[in-house]
């Protein structure tokens, strides 16, 4: 092949290769695959054209330009601690966490330059406004209220930016060290006071229960003594009735009754607490009866005994 023939043929091959490369580049630039949970903003000749959705998308090469992809998932951003002055002029350090999500990729691209920095600055200023109207104790105990106010303000301000603020959480509120020491002493004193109150309540309940138990025991003991006395009195009454019935049925004479009375009389002194004896009037009558009984018995025996000299004993 002569040089005159080779040069046109080489130029033809170079043109074909260039056309192939150009077509390949055009095809590559015409196809754009967007991952799930992301979105891309397309600008055509410098103006907003459309928003690419996840999947396969076709573009006009060299005319359409895709801006950096935007994450459409909910994001969590933790901001560094911010110094905030409370109503009682105390400087506290507050650490916050924000949960937000981009809902409109076009607004997040064109309505605000740096939406993450804007959210941080807006959170700081809103936090200072909310906490500035509270004292330290209210700020420590009103986290839910502060979170709610922050979320409402941020959600209203970031709505036009295509951002939805889901939650705002305060991670920590750190007062000055001197205030922390005072709070710890106060909490310790409060716990000691509660412990003393609980101990006193326990002692009180124990004393009440002990007294109640003693009262119940005394009541039961008195009831037992009462029942025993009643049963004892009933037994004695039945014994007296039995003895009286036996005496009545046996038709005892006054001599036997006087003898029984003398047998029962020494039992009066059996009690160790008996210091003074009272002799009833019936005692002399009983002695007369017993004496008469014994005198009659002796006289009868003497009458029946024979006399050694043969004379009859005198009549009584």
Topology, element by element:
Layout: H1 3-30, E1 31-34, E2 38-44, E3 47-52, E4 55-58, E5 64-66, E6 70-71, E7 74-78, E8 82-85, E9 91-102, H2 105-110, H3 115-131, H4 136-141, H5 143-158, E10 163-174, H6 177-250, H7 254-264, H8 282-304
Antiparallel strand pairs: 1-4, 2-3, 2-5, 2-6, 7-9, 8-9, 9-10
Helix pairs in contact: 3-5, 7-8
What does this structure look like?
The protein is 57% helix and 19% strand. Strand 8 (82-85) and strand 9 (91-102) form a beta hairpin. The longest helix is centred in the last third of the chain and has 74 residues, at 177-250. It is elongated, with a radius of gyration of 61 Å. The chain has 8 helices and 10 strands. Helix 3 packs across helix 5 and helix 7 packs across helix 8 (282-304).
Give a concise summary.
Helices cover 57% and strands 19% of the residues. By secondary structure, it is an alpha+beta fold.
Number of helix segments? 8
Distance between the termini: 204 Å
Structural class: alpha+beta
Shape verdict: elongated
Q: Average pLDDT across residues?
A: 79
* Amount of helix: 55-70%
Low-confidence sequence ranges: 307-316
Q: How many extended strands?
A: 10
Tell me about the largest β-sheet. Answer: 4 strands, antiparallel
Radius of gyration: 61 Å
Report the β-strand fraction as a percent range: 15-25%
Helix and strand run: HEEEEEEEEEHHHHEHHH
Q: Write down the oligomeric state.
A: single chain
Brief descriptors of the model:
316 residues; alpha+beta; four-stranded antiparallel sheet; 57% helix; disordered C terminus
